Amino acid sequence: MPSEQPPRYLTKSRFKLALDCPTKLFYTGKKDLYADGNLDDEFLQALAEGGFQVGELAKLMFPEGIEIIQTSHDEQVTETERMLERDSVTLFEAAIRHGNLFVRVDVLRKNGTRIELIEVKAKSFDSTAHRGFRGERGHIQGEMRPYLQDVAFQHYVLGLAYPHLQPSSFLMLIDKSKACSIDGLNQRFRIRRAQGRPQVTAAPGTDERSIGTPVLTCVNVDDLVDEILGALIDAPGVTGTLAELAATWAERYRADERIRPAIGAQCAKCEFRAEPPGTRDTDLRSGLHECWREAGGLSTADIARGTVLDLWSFRGRQALIERGVLRLADVPLDALGNPGDLGDSADGLTRGRRQAMQVTGQWPGGPDFFIDTALMRKEMTRWVHPLHFIDFETSRVAIPFFAGQRPYENIAFQFSHHVIDHDGEVEHRTQFLSTTPGRKPNYDFVRALRAALGTTGTVFMWSPHENTTLNAILEELEQDASPPPDIAELAIFIRSLTTRKIPKDSAKNPHDNPGAEVGHRAMVDLCRLAEKAFFHPATKGSSSIKKVLPAVMQASEYLQSRYASPIYGAKGGIPSLNFVDQAWWHEVDGAVVDPYCMLPPVFKDVTREAIDALEADEDLELRQGGAAMAAYARLQFEDLAPQERHSIEAALLRYCELDTLAMVMVCEAWNRWTSQTHPD
Known about the structure:
Layout: H1 12-20, H2 24-27, H3 38-49, H4 51-60, E1 66-67, H5 73-83, E2 88-98, E3 101-111, E4 114-125, H6 145-161, E5 166-175, E6 189-194, E7 197-202, E8 216-220, H7 222-230, E9 232-235, E10 238-241, H8 242-254, H9 287-296, H10 300-305, H11 317-322, H12 351-360, E11 370-371, H13 373-380, E12 387-395, E13 411-420, E14 426-433, H14 442-453, E15 459-461, H15 465-479, H16 487-497, E16 499-501, E17 516-518, E18 524-525, H17 526-533, E19 534-535, H18 545-555, H19 557-563, E20 587-588, E21 591-592, H20 608-615, H21 626-637, H22 642-674
Parallel strand pairs: 1-2, 4-5, 12-15, 15-18
Antiparallel strand pairs: 2-3, 3-4, 5-8, 6-7, 9-10, 11-19, 12-13, 13-14, 16-17, 20-21
Helix pairs in contact: 1-6, 3-20, 3-21, 6-7, 13-22, 15-16, 18-22
């Protein structure tokens, strides 16, 4: 007999998915048919931000709670119903069903006819903010709306299933106004992945008394839930009340009927894509391509040539799509901004100019790429040897690792440092990695960086992340009740490297605009320089180092001749702390292999595609280094075998070294091109 198919219920996660795009209901759960970037990405993101531990911490705040642990939907619902017959009870993961609607509630507390629904999230929240979840005009904040719609959906299903009860709804969030009162709170919650699912267990002796002052705050959201339930909700292609949308989507999902797609700007973040379909040794289908073929009339070749979704940093996608402008080549230049945005600028490329290059495929000095040699030369004349290239890896987790630390505060645990000397010699000179569980690395990090950089030479970063990190450590030093003996030296060093905004209220004259405090050796942002002075079509307008490096390698004959042989980490070659006889330039079918693809993955149990998605995720509290954040988290609280711990640490060192080597390679190519009449 064929095995019984599991019921197709509209759950809270599927309701949230449909709010993003109703057509996704047809793609989700079909991992053998459709590519789904969320399968591992959600696990890594929760790991990086500490979301799994937040749920376990919340349970400790209700020591009387009983968890619904049954495996089947029917058993879960039956056990929940049995427990709710009690006059007073607290349940974890209570199962509520009405028709084809099904939800698991994080915490459900019943007392007589009153029942409290508590949704636990790793979202940061400031309980001292007087507006709560509303903006200045009284509307629900956009970033909070999805969380509140989630609660409203659960509230709605609970009301249908138990109409005789009086529900109240709450969000339990990480309160960034509260400091952790004990060391090692995060490490009390151990996590492992079993059969593809995370399992979190609390260390022995962990209870409501051992967790110190709670860093979670429970907020009543009844007024917001009532507002959401009483208003119309807009989702791609449809408008209706929550009740109307839930009923329609539940029935279509039950019948496994595909909802006609309504393509729009939201498609840019679609997780159901294969790029292009059938690549990466898989036959999985691409839901994104199916939607754009059906709703937009585009062929797979059209999509491969570029759509408005590929237009870099463009906020007008939705307006163009509504006008029927879908192909990148059809984008009118007047949609890219003011005419001045498309002209030449002494300060380099404007956003509109970069976008115009994407659309037209034309730029001065073509045909392969554009480089503003005058601007590059102007910037390079300011550089002082030795040139220092640095990259940081940091963590910001929901539940703090250390006493006195607030949720999502900065932890700097790794850096890599390359140097180009006066004679052009390259060296991977120093590195730092601190992953010892329970040890706070920030001050040791700055001490090691200070020793590495010395007092001379220009220091380079790629994006403002390094500047932000050092300023956060400076603030930590200034607020430390028991500062280290070398606080003055560390503060002077940080100020020398950073640019800091000075708040207006710090000015002696309230009418002054103090602007910024710029260190005498302030770091140079190469990402900003790439954005202003370099364009290669392979980057799709992006100035991310992971886009720029392979594009530069594709274009530079100098890098080919220099790095095609295994000189990196070789005797008499370029010194490296983590590689031996490494050749970085490889070509397959006429295309240069991305150096990052040559490295083994950080995790053996997570796909490279999921790691790539996490690195590009703009919803993370920290928008870069997501894989390193997840790795640091695992090294802090997972029970890892020594060999596995060493493997993850070695992978972190290799990836961080490649980040600074990538900066060196890009600068070498730029320097070569700007010193010639024509690029090679």
